[in-house]
User: Which sequence fits this backbone?
């Protein structure tokens, strides 16, 4: 059975993105610093690659996919990533606004799910074929799955930078109800990978 | 020359203490969970012990020492820790309210410093004899030293719990001016120790 995992880069002061997200700054001002580690080589990164091989599908929120709020319009936003997005997997985008499936080069398919968390998870699990379903980006989406008791693991990439402001990864008063178990910690150049199991 | 280090336990959602600090809950509601790791044994703890051997003096804020705000009064607060506090070191307490030096059993001495950050650091460095000066607890105090360019290292004990609310360890818009270098990461039961150097 597929596990649902939240995978996110986080600054030392707890931000998953910088302030003032825009087309120019999809990760917010300063937010790119959270992802420079992905370009580094090293033993830690290899561990992570091994881990990433086990991912069969992704879930993201509308904000992560981008294009602003509201209906998609006549020339719908095609994502931040150009014709060949770096996912190479089925991606399920949670949105209130229906839209046909959008197939890209390199095996990335965006399916737009309008009937909620459970439906998106069911479709993603179906597509993942027993591998992980990862929630990528989208702190809001992850919080909703966590609150619904549907999240199995949290994989954090803790980056030694301060952003000072932005979107906090964990900012929810009900989080104190969640119990975690530390699974592994891997130090790598410019990042520490931390994996936790959500206990129920 | 002594280095100034900020050493603190932090929850996965970024809190250094829980909400509603009081005599009954000096670490805030739920805040004790941040310190249970100190009772665990294991390789990580040994590394930490080694590290702690190099500490010669401590700096803390008035809030960490406790007793509420304002003048000390006729029967001044003697700290949260009883007659033999667990520090066994000279401790310099930043306060606006003067008070004589307060000596406890076991080698802990509380000196109350009313003339600011620089004065407290100078006295602590003098007492530390070349060993580390640690800022213990007191996120506000650490932020002030960081902003003043006086902090050398940050040692975090990242605990896999969510507090949901409380006192955020890093909550300052000017932090994005600070650059860090990852020094070491040590995984231990129920905690990850992370050490960073502050670059100038």
Assistant:
């Amino acid at each position: 059975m597929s596990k649902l995992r939240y995978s996110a880069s986080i600054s030392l002061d707890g931000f998953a993105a910088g302030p003032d997200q825009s087309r120019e700054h999809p990760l917010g001002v300063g937010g790119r610093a959270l992802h420079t580690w992905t370009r580094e080589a090293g033993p830690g990164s290899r561990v992570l690659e091994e881990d990433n091989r086990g991912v069969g599908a992704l879930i993201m929120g509308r904000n992560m996919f981008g294009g602003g709020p509201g209906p998609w319009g006549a020339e719908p936003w095609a994502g931040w990533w150009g014709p060949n997005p770096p996912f190479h997997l089925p991606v399920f985008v949670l949105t209130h606004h229906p839209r046909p499936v959008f197939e890209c080069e390199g095996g990335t398919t965006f399916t737009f799910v309008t009937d909620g968390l459970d439906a998106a998870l069911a479709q993603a699990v179906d597509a993942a074929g027993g591998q992980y379903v990862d929630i990528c980006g989208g702190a809001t989406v992850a919080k909703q799955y966590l609150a619904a008791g549907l999240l199995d693991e949290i994989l954090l990439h803790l980056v030694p930078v301060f952003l000072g402001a932005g979107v906090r990864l964990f900012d929810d008063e009900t989080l104190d109800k969640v119990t975690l178990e530390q699974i592994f910690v891997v130090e790598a150049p410019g990042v520490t990978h931390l994996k936790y199991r959500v206990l129920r």
Observations:
- The radius of gyration of chain A is 16 Å.
